[in-house]
Amino acid sequence: MDQEAAGLEQLRRMRVDHVGSLLRPEALKEAFRACGRGELAREALAEAQDAAIAEVIARQEAIGLPVVSDGEYRRLNWQVSFSEVEGWDLWTGSWKGFLAHPDLLLPGERPNARGEDAVVSFRTPATSRLALKHNFPLDEYRYAASLARRPVKAMLMGPDRVAQMCDIDRSRPAYADSDAFLADVVAIQRRMVGELTEAGCRYVQLDEPSYTGYVDPQTLARLAARGEDPLANLERAVAADNAVIEGLGARAVTALHVCRGNRASMWHREGSYDAIAERLFGGLRFDRLLLEYDSERAGGFEP
Asked: I want to staple 158 with a disulfide (CB 3.0 to 4.6 A). Which of 13, 173, 178, 208 is the partner?
């Protein structure tokens, strides 16, 4: 086994990990707010992000973590990993919302709250066929890797979550249905992942909180109201995630993170894995699964 293959195998077998997204220091949060209020230039915000990322990487390495991340400190939210995409106005929309509400909460959202009323859900239409304009996670990776002595993980929003955010009815004539939209999302994310591994990234993680929608009672009710089949959606999601990482085995470790939504410490979804465990855990082809477990809203270890 050559040195690179041995390094990948060591990453696959490591017994400690983290999901990559880390709490922001207060100074960085204030820099975001000041930028939102028009009191700090975007260039100055980038400098604050650089400094915070350098500090958090140093802290992770000092602790001895085998893999590190930039904490997602450049992101308004985790979803902007799939943002600079033609036909998908999430980046512009995110910044507009942030500039109007730089406290990071949208009208109607309540911090530290439980239930559907705690988080404002929205759907974005595709205005044209999707095409990658800029690989945002690649920029994140390159800066973090320039500082780190240990492997750096790259985190991307999974394709099913992107699909769940799309308003297909308002996306015509660009997309006739969700399957066509999802196929383009997968193609773009395969390109993003390919560019990351070409740049030296050896740990790629997809974040898929969408899977908890298939066990959350309120989300299941909304799917039923729209005439959607949760089981069919789940199987389509597993296939899409597997397609994004297909062929990466010799180049990178792959992980999939499932959570129930923790933005601004809010409680978004709940439900144990029981109903989806066989299809989810038996169908995914990732090296590592980073899962919420053993809590009031995630259930026990039985599944």
From this structure: 208
Nearest to 156 by CA among 196, 104, 216, 111: 196
For the chain, the maximum distance between any two Cα atoms, rounded to a whole number of angstroms, is 55
On whether the CB atoms of residues 103 and 95 are closer than 8 A, the answer is: no
Q: What is the pLDDT of residue 237?
A: 95
Q: Is the pTM of this model over 0.85?
A: yes
3-state secondary structure 127-166: CCCCEECCCHHHHHHHHHHHHCCCCECEEEECHHHHHHHE
Q: How confident is the model at residue 122 (pLDDT cuts 50, 70, 90)?
A: low
Residue 258 pairs in a beta bridge with 291
Q: How far apart are CA 165 and CA 126, in angstroms?
A: 10
Q: What is the pLDDT of residue 91?
A: 59
170 to 42, 92, 127, 142, 174: CA distances (angstroms): 32, 18, 8, 36, 9
Across 253-266, average pLDDT: 78
Task: For domain 3-291, give its CATH number from 3.40.50.2300, 3.20.20.210, 3.90.550.10, 3.40.50.11440.
Answer: 3.20.20.210
